[in-house]
Amino acid sequence: MKTALIKSRETHGSFDCIIAWIHGSDKKVWESLFQAVSNTKNVILYHIKGSSSYLNNDSTKSYIPSNIIYREVKLGFIIEDNNTSRWLTNSEIAQGTIDAIKQEIPEKRVGVFEPWNLRP
To answer: Nearest Cα to 25, choosing from 71, 56, 55, 59?
Structure first.
């Protein structure tokens, strides 16, 4: 990942905005990302997170470098009319992410998170 990010930066220039769906808290992935943007100021990072992020208070925000503006897009689920639920579609995830970028807010929730027992 590190090599691909650095090569992309060299080919296309520095990053202004990054949309990253990083599962878990793998330090190597985060370190590679941070190294790729280390010489860039005010990079906006949209961290896409799955529904379990609703319950987990991870410490991602605590190790974000000062040159990164950190924002979260938390993905929930949809409750249908017949009281069943389903995961978000790719289109719903994409639209939620686009909305987060347009709204410029620290946290965007897409779908619902409660009642948790209806989670698919």
So the answer is: 59
Do residues 107 and 86 lie in contact, with contact meaning Cβ atoms separated by under 8 Å?
A: no
pLDDT at 92: 97
Encoded tokens for 24 = 């878990």
C-alpha–C-alpha distance, residues 81 and 104, integer Å: 31
Q: What is the pLDDT of residues 74-106, one digit of tens each?
A: 999 999 988 899 999 999 999 999 999 999 999
What is residue 108's predicted lDDT score, i.e. its pLDDT? 95
| Residue reference for tokens 């992020």 | 53
Give residue for tokens 């009281």.
83
The 10 Å CB-count burial string (b at 16+, else e) for 76-109 is bbbbeeeeebeebeeebbeebbeebbeeeeeebb
What is the token pair recorded at 66? Answer: 């000062």
